[in-house]
Amino acid sequence: MSFCLDTYLQQSDDYEILLSRAGFKDCAKIIKEKAEEIVYINAGEKILGVRIIGIPPIPVGINPKKGTVIISYTKPCHGTAAIEIPVEEEDIGAIKEVSIDD
Amino acid sequence: MKKALLLLGCPESPSQTPMAIYASSKLSQLDYEITIASTPAASKLLEVSDPNGYYVKDKIDIDSCLSTLEEKQYDLLLGFVSKDAAASYFVTFYHILQTESIALIFEKDPDVLEDLTKTVEENTEGKIVSVKAFHNPNPIKVRFDKILAELK
């Protein structure tokens, strides 16, 4: 079964919120600071089972040693959060496949 | 019949619900079939404001709408932007839909308003109504009417 971020965040506590109730720019900044590797995606690109909301190019942080990615996660009334979640290697590969040039 | 998507943000700003109903009425007169994408809370406000569904015919949850959204699915995107998250949603919907778009940007704080306007301006080619407003929807309504005249 493919990974679904919304379900994962509801059913697991194995993730870290690096910033919450913030603006998109602040979350993009922290993603760039906290990740070993950065790739960029278009607004609305589907990764980890959800479409990512934001201002393109949207940074996605990758920490290969920890096996995690850091993404921005936006909800209308709660603003944007930067969340670090554990993923499989194939998920990282799938994110890189849809990445764009900065 | 042309199709318009009204994209609502957090309903914290009192002007959003009346402007959504006003815009639905105006766009219906221009022969648009309207769908309103919103949070459950914003949807409840619409239901109470228009109990017989006279203005609001079709509603969809904002995240369900996003997950199935396709290029050119609507002929017009009208986004209500009064928070940073709403600007992010509008820019995202704009990039997926690639269609004629209008952003109604309203905020009481001039600096926040300028920031939201800059974000939308720099990341879309949509038409923009940017106005200092919170309780009183009239300044938004007046500017929206002018933009609608350009649609005709």
Account of the 3D structure:
The complex is a heterodimer of chains A (102) and B (152). Chain A is an alpha+beta fold and 102 residues long. Chain A is 26% helix and 37% strand. Chain A has helices spanning 5-11, 24-34, 89-97, and strands at residues 16-22, 37-41, 46-47, 50-51, 58-63, 68-75, 79-86. Chain A has a 5-stranded antiparallel β-sheet, sandwiched between helices. Chain A has a two-stranded antiparallel sheet with strand order 3-4. Chain B has one domain (2-151): Rossmann fold. Chain B: InterPro entries: MTH777-like_sf (IPR036608), UCP006600 (IPR012033). Chain B: It comes from Methanobrevibacter cuticularis. Chain B: Pfam families: DUF1890 (PF09001). Chain B: This is DUF1890 domain-containing protein.
Show the helix and strand layout:
The complex is a heterodimer of chains A (102) and B (152).
Chain A lengths: L4 H7 L4 E7 L1 H11 L2 E5 L4 E2 L2 E2 L6 E6 L4 E8 L3 E8 L2 H9 L5
Antiparallel strand pairs in A: 1-7, 2-5, 3-4, 5-6, 6-7
Chain B lengths: L1 E6 L8 H14 L2 E7 L1 H10 L8 E4 H7 L7 E6 L2 H14 L2 E8 L2 H14 L3 E6 L5 H14 L1
Parallel strand pairs in B: 1-2, 1-4, 2-3, 4-5, 5-6
Short description:
Chain B: Pfam families: DUF1890. The complex is a heterodimer of chains A (102) and B (152). With 102 residues, chain A is an alpha+beta fold.
- Could you list the spans of chain A in which at least 5 consecutive residues all have pLDDT below 50? none
Strand content bin of chain B: 15-25%
The termini of chain B sit apart by 14 Å
Kindly state the percentage of residues in helix of chain B.
40-55%
Q: Would you list the SSEs of chain A in sequence order as H and E?
A: HEHEEEEEEH
- The overall number of domains of chain B is 1
Residue share in helix of chain A: 25-40%
Separate helix tally of chain B? 6
Question: Structural class, from secondary structure content of chain A?
Answer: alpha+beta
Using a beta-carbon cutoff below 8 angstroms, give the protein chain pair with the largest interface and the number of residues from each chain: A-B, 20 and 27 residues
Average per-residue pLDDT of chain B, rounded, comes to 96
CATH C-level name of chain B: Alpha Beta
Radius of gyration of chain A using CA atoms only: 12 Å
**Secondary structure: number of strands of chain A:** 7
Class derived from helix and strand content of chain B: alpha/beta
